[in-house]
Write a structure and sequence with these properties.
Ribosomal Protein S5, domain 2; 36% helix; 18% strand
Length: 121
């Protein structure tokens, strides 16, 4: 069973901002993926991930659903991603009405486009 432990989540505002400002972005209709490739030797942020949904998406219930969809898509495919990077997934309006399978397929498409998917996975 695949899990996503709390220790793998980005928590500090400074870490979150580093990924957001310095990472490369890749987008589709459901979310924006920010990828921050870590310099050699930096282990603290390696394999960490964060999820966000802005207030433009709707009320708290809607925003939490979008974050759950993103978290589940990441959790299902985390073993297929390369190491040595930190990720940030920011929900977009399209994810509000999307199904889980649509978001999952979309996540892997964007991961391949970003070059973070393993070829053997």
């Amino acid at each position: 069973m695949l899990t996503l432990p709390r220790k793998r989540m980005l928590k500090r505002r400074s870490d979150f901002q580093k990924v957001y400002r310095s990472g490369h972005s890749f987008a589709n209709r459901y979310f924006v993926l920010y990828v921050f490739r870590l310099p050699k030797g930096e282990k603290r942020l390696s394999g960490r991930v964060a999820f966000a949904a802005g207030k433009k998406l709707g009320c708290a219930v809607v925003r939490n659903r979008v974050k759950r969809l993103l978290r589940e898509a990441y959790r299902q495919h985390q073993h297929e991603l390369r190491d040595g990077m930190a990720l940030l997934l920011v929900g977009r309006r399209g994810a509000v009405k999307a199904s889980g399978t649509e978001v999952e397929r979309s996540f892997m498409r964007v991961a391949r486009k970003a070059g973070i998917a393993r070829e053997d996975g």
